[in-house]
Design brief:
- This protein is mainly alpha-helical.
- It has 18 helices and no strands.
- InterPro entries: MFS (IPR011701), MFS_trans_sf (IPR036259), Sugar_transport-like (IPR052528).
- Pfam families: MFS_1.
Length: about 425
């Protein structure tokens, strides 16, 4: 009966999102705004204090490594106890990170590893719990739509927030401007914490299996072996691109307003692209949509071979924003559909999400180590460009690994588990049905 009800609900709603999905998108959007306001300028802030690529590299490396460890360790808390408290703590610690940078001021560069660790803990807790709640409030029929809207809002935040930050920093005295944007991020993250109380309490069940991911990867023919490789390739690219491109724009222009304008332009392109791809993409189009994405993302790096300048960086940024949704949406939706392929997988959703995030973190760590190794040998712009091209090609490997798995459809295990969870949840929390938790 529960399965039939779930199927009927899907037939009626199609790709529609319910109130819980919308609330989670709001929390995600507020977190994205806070990150866009201040996170975009953290590398530039550290660079102004001390012009050292290695210093910023160590900040990012400590963030990646600790974030991955937190995913693995906190998996037990999220599975067996309260995932909503983990989500809230992640948002609170993100606020603590910006508060710490604000208090340290220009001397923050002396503490890059400790503040990187704090940021890693915050991001690890937030994204682990967010991804699990995301899995629970979405279904295969609306997951592409959710990812499209979330990407759309993230791009919208990227349009407005960095431009506003750049304007504030250049209009006010430099340090005063940074104080204003870091404080603004604190306030926005506080609002995000309040919004999480409108997400319903989600019942915990089962026992956390520490080495579940390792067991999955040891099985021949297990699709997780291929998806783990694809996720690592995505992380390898992200590990270098996430901080180096924005920092390079600042170094090329020496102007925060220019960096804000850059973020505005590429985020506007991403907003349009996420909207179009989110409406067009369906499971049967993922394979060739992702192929087009990885090839065009690689081609977008070519302008940098003609010299690193604001113009070529802008061409690269526009190309990346235009084609990234073709890669991100298929691989993300396919991974979560794989988690929901049957009841047994759904019961291990926390372990699978931990595996996904550890693979992403491992890729980012490898990318950052490669960056630090190259930097220790040469600071030639040509060497940096070739490094960007090399890591930028990695998603092609991910497509080859997963190309025959992108059109998978779950065998209703996720629907059955969702129906069961709703039945248990309604029975346990009937008295609190109308109240946020």
């Amino acid at each position: 009966m529960g399965t039939q009800a779930s199927a009927l609900r899907q037939d009626k709603s199609g790709a529609k999102l319910d109130s819980q999905s919308v609330t989670l998108i709001v929390v995600h959007g507020l977190h994205a705004i806070a990150s866009a306001l201040s996170g975009t300028f953290i590398p530039a802030y550290l660079w102004k204090a001390k012009e050292s690529f290695a210093n910023i590299g160590w900040f990012c490396l400590s963030q990646y490594v600790v974030g991955g460890l937190i995913f693995w360790i906190a998996g037990k808390w999220v599975k067996e106890y309260n995932k909503m408290n983990a989500l809230r703590l992640g948002v609170v610690l993100s606020g603590c990170f910006y508060f710490t940078v604000l208090m340290l001021g220009p001397s923050a560069y002396k503490w890059v590893v400790p503040i990187g660790i704090l940021d890693g803990v915050a991001l690890g807790l937030f994204w682990l719990s967010y991804n699990i709640v995301y899995f629970e409030v979405t279904e295969p029929g609306n997951r592409d739509r959710y990812n499209g809207i979330a990407g759309l809002l993230g791009a919208a935040a990227g349009i407005i927030a960095p431009w506003v930050s750049g304007y504030i920093i250049t209009t006010l005295k430099q340090q005063r401007g940074y104080q204003v944007i870091f404080t603004s991020s604190l306030i926005i993250l506080g609002i995000a914490v309040v919004c999480t109380f409108w997400l319903k309490h989600r019942q915990s069940s089962g026992t956390y299996e520490w080495l579940h991911g390792v067991k999955e990867l040891r099985q021949r023919g297990n699709p997780w072996r291929r998806f783990t490789l694809a996720i690592m390739m995505q992380g390898l690219r992200d590990g270098v691109f996430m901080f180096l491109v924005g920092l390079t724009v600042y170094i090329a222009t020496r102007n925060e307003q220019k960096l804000g304008n850059y973020a505005l332009t590429i985020s506007f392109v991403a907003l349009i692209s996420f909207w179009i791809v989110g409406k067009w993409l369906r499971p049967h189009r993922r394979k060739y949509g992702m192929l087009a994405g990885v090839l065009l993302l690689t081609a977008a790096i070519i302008p940098l071979f003609f010299g690193i300048s604001y113009k070529t960086l802008l061409m690269f940024g526009i190309g990346t924003s235009l084609f990234m949704p073709l890669y991100i949406i298929p691989v993300t939706s396919s991974v979560f559909d794989l988690i929901g392929k049957n009841e047994q997988s759904v019961r291990k959703r926390e372990e699978f999400i931990v595996l996904r995030e550890i693979a992403l973190t491992l890729g980012r760590t490898i990318g950052m180590i490669a960056y630090l190794v190259v930097l220790s040998r040469t600071r030639s712009p040509a060497a940096i460009t070739w490094l960007l091209f090399a890591v930028g090609c990695m998603p092609i490997i991910g497509w080859f690994a997963t190309r025959n798995l992108l059109n998978m459809t779950p065998d209703h295990g996720e629907e059955r588990q969702n129906a069961k969870d709703r039945t248990i949840g309604n029975g346990a929390n009937r008295g609190d049905a109308g109240r946020p938790h």
